[in-house]
């Protein structure tokens, strides 16, 4: 997944805005993604993809 920090931030915030049912841990993870520019690990990318899917969001294509 090639995604800029700005895109990741907007997607994470949109997940939170959509009030998607999630655990406290998932909500905290989205908050972390919105403020921390550190690259995601492979496991984090997989989790983020799952959250995006649940929120019916997609990573924008260039």
Describe this structure in words.
With 62 residues, the protein is mainly α. Helix content is 61%, strand content 0%. The chain has 3 helices and no strands. It has helices at 5-17, 24-35, 42-54. Helix 1 packs antiparallel against helix 2 (24-35). The longest helix has 13 residues, at 5-17. The chain is globular and about 25 Å long. 15% of the residues are buried. The mean pLDDT is 92.
Tell me the quaternary state: single chain
Mean pLDDT: 92
User: Main beta sheet: strand number and arrangement?
Assistant: none
Percentage beta strand: under 5%
Low-pLDDT sequence parts: none
The count of β-strands is 0
Class of secondary structure makeup: mainly alpha
Q: How large is the radius of gyration?
A: 10 Å
Topology as a string of helices (H) and strands (E): HHH
- Structure annotation, total helices: 3
- Fraction of residues in helices? 55-70%
Distance between the termini: 12 Å
Shape descriptor reads globular
Q: What are the SSEs and their pairings?
A:
Blueprint lengths: L4 H13 L6 H12 L6 H13 L8
Helix pairs in contact: 1-2
What is this structure, in a nutshell?
With 62 residues, the protein is mainly α. The chain is 61% helix and 0% strand.
Task: Please give a handful of descriptors for the protein shown.
mainly alpha, 62 residues, 3 helices
């Amino acid at each position: 997944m090639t995604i800029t920090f700005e895109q990741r931030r907007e997607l994470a915030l949109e997940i939170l805005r959509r009030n998607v049912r999630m655990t406290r841990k998932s909500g905290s993870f989205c908050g972390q993604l919105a403020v921390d520019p550190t690259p995601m690990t492979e496991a984090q990318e997989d989790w983020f993809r799952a959250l995006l899917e649940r929120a019916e969001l997609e990573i924008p294509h260039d």
